[in-house]
Amino acid sequence: MTAKEKARRAAASAAIDGVLKYIKKSPEENFVKMLNLVERFADGSFPEKNFDAFRKAATDKNNVWHNFAMGLINDLDHNALKKMLLAVGLGAAIDGTKKVRENREKYKCNIPFIILLDPTSACNLNCKGCWSAQYGNKFNLSLDDMRSIVKQGTELGTHFYMFTGGEPLIRKNDILALCEENPDCGFLAYTNATFVDEKFCEDMKRVGNLTLALSVEGTQRTNDARRGEGSYERSMKAMRLLRENGLFFGLSVCYTAQNVDAVTSDEFLDKMIANGAKYALYFNYMPVGKDAVEALIPTPEQRKFMYGWLRKMRNGETGKPIFVMDFQDDGEYVGGCIAGGRNYFHINSAGDMEPCVFIHYADSNIHTDTILEALRKPLFQAYWHNQPFNDNHLRPCPLLENPQCLRKIIAETGAKSTNLEAPEGVETLCSRCDKFAKEWQPVADELWASRKHPNPKTQYYRDMKKD
Question: Each residue of 132-150: pLDDT tens digit?
Answer without folding.
Answer: 555 556 789 999 999 999 9
